[in-house]
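Continuing the series of single-chain predictions for the mutant panel. This is the parent chain; the variants come on the following pages.
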Amino acid sequence: MKQSVLEYKKLLEQEGLLVEFAEPEGKEGEDRPVTLVTYFSGGADQGTLFLCKGAAFKEAYLKDAVNRGAVAYVSEKKYEAGKEIPALIVNDARKAQFVLGEAFYDYPAKSLHVTALTGTKGKTTTAYYLQSMLDACLKKQGGNGCALLSSIEYYDGKTREASTLTTPESLELCRHMRNAVDAGLSHMVMEVSSQALKYERVGNTHFDTAIFLNISKDHISPTEHFQSKLKIFDRCTCACVNLDSDHIGEILKAAAKCERVVTFGSKENAVIRVSDIKPGRGKFYFHVAGPDFSEDFTLPVHGVFNVENAVAAIAAAWSMGIPVSLIKESLLGVTVPGRMETYESSAGEVTAIVDFAHNGLSFEKMFDTVALEYPGSRVSVVFGTPGGKAFNRRKDMGEISGKRADRIFLVPDDPGNEDPQAICEEIGGYIAKEGASFQIRMDRGAAIREAILGAVPGEVVLILGKGADVTMHVGNGNVPYRSDAVYAKEALAEYGNAFAEAATARETEE
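Parent structure:
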């Protein structure tokens, strides 16, 4: 919704955010229409309301925006570079960003049924499962499906793009919501990180449904991390809570402020209860019972932990009134890019599993999955760790792979400004302490090929860390990367052809 500088000033005043409205000398009382709200100076144009944000903000950005036609700027302090245009000085730039974005895009959240998911693990997979269920239901009713904001991609009915954050910045969130409404979508499923809740990236968006999956140690202090995630219930109608989560008492206490609470999990008192989980090759069978249904389900993916994600989605879908028959049907065909993607050589001699697993907990689950579903198989692993962050992962992943893998290939994984060789050597030190050997390869794609071509029949090759990523973070930027899946499929095809040729040669000799 296009407004003017003075109308945005009034809005900030109403929200208690405006500290000062500073106008250029001689231009007091002038008003100008605002045609764009942005914090990207390169995208500024005539009529821009420019937001000065972030710890890395430089005054040169504001100068650039002014030169491009900005008519006012919003900041927590005045800048000399903005002296020619009005300054809206606020006490909280983060909150102001959402308030202004919501108004600029004409409050799109009011026209959407928004489901938010938080938790330490499983957000992305659960989001895809629930989107699939909603798509099946909405399209059967003549609707246009469901928008999705995930750590893999953003889809809003108009655009589909790779995500840059688990939860978009406030302006992007409002833009995606507006696109969804304009495209005729009625529902949106979105992952909400603890950082997004802590820094109010979602503003005062109301969540019709909020799913709390689990809690464990993460990138910020555990207490702060946990309390941030609990904020999801501050703006929620129906809370879906995993009774099997740690700290369940505190979670339920926070969820009690919502109008409705639907619990799920394996506990006897769960509203949506899962039982009788049985593994198959590449799939799981399980039973789910609710107040008005008792059904057997099939989930055609690896990893028993994905059953918990599926039950979370089932609970949310059931709470929205989606028929159980459609829930069951949608689960049979759901896929999640970069999550437990499984590929086999032509005759199934070798299996490769591509997954985003990138910390100790997810590593353990991957090896547990292989042990359960491929008992007795030799296991190889190809992985690395990112540079410049989460240094404890190097020890955790090194120790786990050293204990549980038969062959280990250490490779680059978004090294940034660190030396990837040094990162691999550090991981290797922890592997060696477990009495295991490893190989370091600086070409990730070549290492995947080497691991697969060197496999014995029946072997499982785990390719972990990057999932569906098609870029590699090197230095201060990203460079193209063909993806782990592409390299795996090519190597498996080569392996299958070679295996078939060898079999034919043996038959000829006999």
